[in-house]
Amino acid sequence: MIRAVVFDLDDTLAPEYGFVKSGFKAVASFLAEGKWLRFKVSEGSDAAALTQQLWRELLELFDEDARNVFNRLLELHGVGDPGDDIFDLVKLYRDHEIDPDIYRPYSDAMPALDRLKKEGVKLGILTDGFALSQRNKLRTLGFDKDLFDSILVTAQMGEGYAKPSEKGFLHVAGELGIDPSEMIYVGDNPKKDFYIGQLLPVKTVRVMRKGGVYENAPYREDIKEDFRIEDLGQIYAYIRGIEE
Q: Could you tell me if residue 81 is inside a domain?
């Protein structure tokens, strides 16, 4: 019997690209307002217009190649090698106050969560990533203990908890008061979200998100999900299918 559904966060419940856009906007504003001394802003320049320009350029650079975006922006504006100063921008990006008008759940997320909860299914989140970034995302989305029965950001637990390790899953199962065999894990990343089925009797579901970061990534050791969906609303039907 399935008693709990545990979700990945990024590109499962909310688009990672929304966080990227919000973070780039925060960095663009920081630069446009002259708060980073390596980036010279002309006196009397329109900070709002410059923010929009820099934000657009960051997104264009990211769409071309997700690597070294800030370095490439600075090069575009004639800024020499920033050295370790670049980490000021990286930290701002990771830790910024997320714009809730930019970063939102997928449209199918809340209806699916509400239905599962009404049906008495326990809900959890197990997510990797930088701890503060993930906590900021959860807060912006309103994903808290009123909605979820267990929330685990693996980076807050120390080494050994990041996926595909079974330690994080066992921790969440313990908080939920269930056996791993009573859990479904829903994710999007073939590199680490479905391998847990080799380690524990956890059923795995892959949600296919068009444009997701790991949409075309290879599977870890070719271990695939038990079930594939296009919409989170299909999870309940999958649970019913298992139990019938």
A: yes
